[in-house]
Amino acid sequence: MKNFNIIKVNFKGGIINPAEFYNILLAAEKSRLLYAKFGLRQQFLLEVGIEEVYNLTAELDALGIRYEVNTENYPNIISSYPAEEVFINNTWLTENIYKEIFSAFDYPPQLKINISDSNQSFTPLLTGNINWVASITDTNFWHLFIRFPKTNIIYEWKDVVHTKDLPVMSHYIEENILQHKEKFYDNETASGDELYALIKKETFNAKPAAAPCALPPFKLPYYEGLNRYGDKYWLGIYRRDELFSIQFLKEVCLLCISTGSEQLCSTPWKSIMIKGIEEKNRNQWNDLLDRYYINVRHAANELNFQVEDYNPDALKLKQLLVKRLNDEDTRSFGVCIGIKTQRKTEVFSSILVKRKPLIRIGKLELFHLYDILCAKDYNPNERTAFVFSSDNPKFVLAEQLRRAVLSYYRQPVAVPEEGAAPTAEHDFMLAD
Hints:
432 residues, seven-stranded mixed β-sheet, six-stranded mixed β-sheet
């Protein structure tokens, strides 16, 4: 029997208000929590003993914080805001525009929404159900990709939509999908044109797209450490066990407030970023890292993994695979490796390690094997893949993964090894 609960707090777009976050951390501390986590959708996660749930939720209620306990009815809006200025340059999408969009969402979405600059590969573009991608050519206009819930069906909207209409149009699309679940929800025959016909009757500031949206090539940047951009610095912090000390996070908030570096963000890599650090305050951040023995120079072999939230099996498998890649001194910079152990979960990845049971009896799974799938062109924003290697027992998995990673560097488009499955396309990541 589970003796703990997961409390989830959403930060729209991964933007964290340090003062508000500090109060949340104080509430967690009162409930005797020592550590917390961040999730794949940039949300804050607290694992709370059943005896403390009431106390902590009462504190959050008093603070006016919206949260969920053991549910995912209101998934977080994720965005590429953390990468703004740091990994994204020469774009019309600024910090103020992001914040205007998020403030206009006056309802809690029930479908997953992604809001992304097109000129980046740090955050996923199409892992949501309603995916907005900024136009490269039309300032303040956005391409829209619908991924129908519980399917891998992607539909590119025929129009580009103005920034001011993103929240209201997202709400209207969500309402139509949920009102017509038999057509658009968990239905492999869902029709994007049919949904478009329902929505286009409304008055939105939109115009026909001049051309389909060109998704950028993927190259995962190194997102850790204290680094200069322009005349300021950004600090990325990753934790191997995904656990952040509550006390450390409190000090992060206080230092953000006292130095004016209040661009605190959570990322889809279960890490945090602080932007806008001035040269005169750099030593204070280094001192904070020293006091808590925070290592900020992990190998790319480790940083480029994605695993499901609160999944100790996937995390343990990641650590095993990372060790083997390190032992073999395998280069993996730029590629994203995902581990998927549960059915219908979303894992953003160029190369996916997918666990499957040899025997399934109801919910009981016995004797696992592993498939390795490579996304089309190794771009995790693509939705199809070929099987690089299938039915691997665990003791050969690390070597097969190493070979898959090497294939990423050998050729621009992957070709399966001899003896692997045919190159027919497969669903790569089935979400929700």
